[in-house]
Amino acid sequence: MNVKVNSLSLTYGNHRALKDVTFELDSYKIYGLLGRNGAGKTSLLSIMASFHEPTSGSITINGEVPFENASIMQQVAFMYNKDYKDESDHAINVLKGVARYRPYFDMKYAEYLVKRFKLDKKKPIKQFSKGMQSALNVIIGLASRAPLTIFDEVYLGMDAPSRDMFYKELLEDQQNHPRVIILSTHLVSEMDYLFDEVIIIDEGNLMLQEEYDSLISKGAKITGNAEIVDDFVQSKQLLNVEQLGNTKAVTIYGELSKTERTIAVDKGLEIAPISLHELFVHLTKEVEDNEK
């Protein structure tokens, strides 16, 4: 499975939702798609799922344009926060209906997940709670086993134990049936361990695409005497600065060499790692601050 996005732009009236976005997905990985509200995540995913055509630029899936391409669309599952208020059928019947159009769908696995999430087989879906409806979306996405599977904040309404079940099933099924999975989420601190690679979209622009471990290694918080900290970080990219009295804590973005780490320790500075959540917040906040 290969997804190639080249100079992709999408405009709604006078609003540019996406601005010359370029990246490629070519490995069976779980990709975390991050961005603040209105950053353009759903716009990007809707183009991947052929809900929209780009205003300019291109997207190809396995070398083909996906829009109105039935053979490609059978390989893409786009799960989002769907409202089932008019759905009077039962969960099993809905899943059987989906299976008819999904060549990789595993009905046995879907029925197992229905039991796992304790969905009522006799109750019409429109009577499900929001969390149960979200669980149904999760089941469809997992059981479809599409080569390109997209979950766009599909967990909305699910309680913590249900989300945890989703994460465990996702990891296990990805191991047994590898595919390209995209997780668009605001629950960064809760889901970061799922990501093999991270993509950050900010104000319609691609900010970065990087392996999770590599990205995390670039963030650090330097704490110590204010003058010593200032001297140490003067050539670094600063993401956040905090100070209390003569003690200063500076969050930086950029790799520290072994020599630099040794120098920092010798100068009495503390170097602490930061989480993906912190890194994401500071990176996107920095762009906002610079634009003011």
Task: Summarize this structure briefly.
The chain is an alpha/beta fold and 292 residues long.
Q: Can you offer a commentary on this structure?
A:
- With 292 residues, the protein is α/β, with parallel strands linked by helices.
- The chain has 2 domains: 211 residues, 3-Layer(aba) Sandwich (Rossmann fold), CATH 3.40.50.300; 74 residues, 2-Layer Sandwich (Alpha-Beta Plaits), CATH 3.30.70.
- 36% of the residues lie in helices and 29% in strands.
- The protein has 11 helices and 13 strands.
- The strands form 3 sheets. Strands 5-6-7-3-8-9 form a 6-stranded mixed sheet, sandwiched between helices. A 4-stranded antiparallel sheet has the order 11-12-10-13.
- A hairpin with a 2-residue loop joins strand 1 and strand 2.
- Helix 3 runs antiparallel to helix 4, helix 4 packs antiparallel against helix 5 and helix 5 packs parallel to helix 6.
- The longest helix has 17 residues.
- The protein is globular and about 65 Å long.
- The two termini are 41 Å apart.
